[in-house]
Specification:
- By secondary structure, the protein is mostly helical.
- Helix 3 packs across helix 9, helix 4 packs antiparallel against helix 6 and helix 7 packs antiparallel against helix 8.
- The protein has one domain.
- The longest helix is centred in the middle third of the chain and has 28 residues.
- 72% of the residues lie in helices and 0% in strands.
- The chain is globular and about 50 Å long.
- The protein contains 9 helices and no strands.
Length: 222
C-alpha cells in the first residue's frame, strides 16, 4: 500500500484555485463594478474548475498507487469530505434558518436537508446549493468520486482520457440546453434564475473538467 505523497505543483494549483474563488466572492461584495473589471472578477469562479482538475489528478495518483480496492477508496473519500460538510449543514441551518434565500426562493425543508446530507442535492435545481452556500461543488465532487472507479478502470492513457472528455461534451451540451429551455417556462423569475445557474453547475456539465484532469495525469511527469 502506498503512503501519502505530496507534490508541490498540486498544492500550488489548489492555492491558485482558492485565491480565484476568494477573488470572485470579494468582487461580488464590491458594488458598482462594471466592464472589464467586473468580467475579470467574475472569472475568478473558474477557480472551482481548477480545483476539479487538481482533484482528478490527485485521485488518479492515489488510486494507482494504492492496492486496497474500491471499498477503501469510497471510505477514504467519504471521511475526507463528510464530517466538515455535515457540520456546515448544521451551522448554516441554524444561522440562516429555513426561509427563502438566493438559490431557494421558497425556503428549505426536510427534503433539502436530507438530500444535502446524502450528497444527492446536486440532482435537483431546488436543492443543489440551497442549504450550504456553494454546496453544489461538494455534490459535483462526490458524484465524481462515485463514478471514478468505473472511469479509471477503462481510462488507461491520455488518449483515452482525452476522448472521454470530448465525448462528455455532448451530454454536457444537451443537459445545458435542456435546463435552459426548462428555465424559460419556470415562474416566478427567481426560479428562472435558479434553473439558469443550475444549467452550468450540474455534474453532467462539469464532468468534462474532471476528465481534463485525468488527461493531465497521464501527461505530467511523475
Amino acid at each position: 500500500m502506498g503512503g501519502q505523497v505530496r507534490y508541490g505543483y498540486i498544492d500550488a494549483l489548489r492555492g491558485y484555485a482558492i485565491l480565484l474563488v476568494i477573488f470572485v466572492h470579494s468582487s461580488q461584495m464590491i458594488g458598482g463594478l462594471q466592464g472589464y473589471v467586473y468580467q475579470i472578477g467574475d472569472q475568478g469562479a473558474r477557480g472551482v474548475q481548477l480545483f476539479f482538475v487538481a482533484s482528478a489528478i490527485t485521485l488518479c495518483m492515489s488510486y494507482h498507487r494504492r492496492t486496497d480496492g474500491v471499498g477503501a477508496f469510497y471510505i477514504r473519500r467519504l471521511f475526507r469530505i463528510a464530517p466538515m460538510f455535515w457540520l456546515a449543514i448544521i451551522y448554516f441551518t441554524l444561522k440562516d434558518g429555513v426561509g427563502p434565500r438566493g438559490l431557494e426562493p421558497d425556503g428549505i425543508g426536510a427534503t433539502h436537508i436530507i438530500l444535502t446530507t446524502l450528497f444527492a442535492h446536486g440532482f435537483l435545481p431546488s436543492t443543489f446549493s440551497s442549504v450550504v452556500p456553494g454546496g453544489w461543488s461538494i455534490a459535483v465532487e462526490m458524484m465524481f468520486y462515485a463514478v471514478f472507479p468505473i472511469l479509471v478502470s477503462y481510462i488507461k492513457s491520455w488518449r483515452a482520457a482525452a476522448v472521454a472528455a470530448l465525448i462528455a461534451l455532448a451530454p454536457a451540451a444537451i443537459a445545458y440546453a435542456s435546463i435552459q429551455a426548462a428555465a424559460k417556462h419556470v415562474t416566478p423569475q427567481s426560479w428562472n434564475v435558479v434553473y439558469q445557474v443550475f444549467s452550468t453547475l450540474n455534474f453532467v456539465h462539469q464532468l468534462p473538467v474532471f476528465l481534463i484532469g485525468m488527461t493531465a495525469y497521464f501527461i505530467i511527469p511523475r
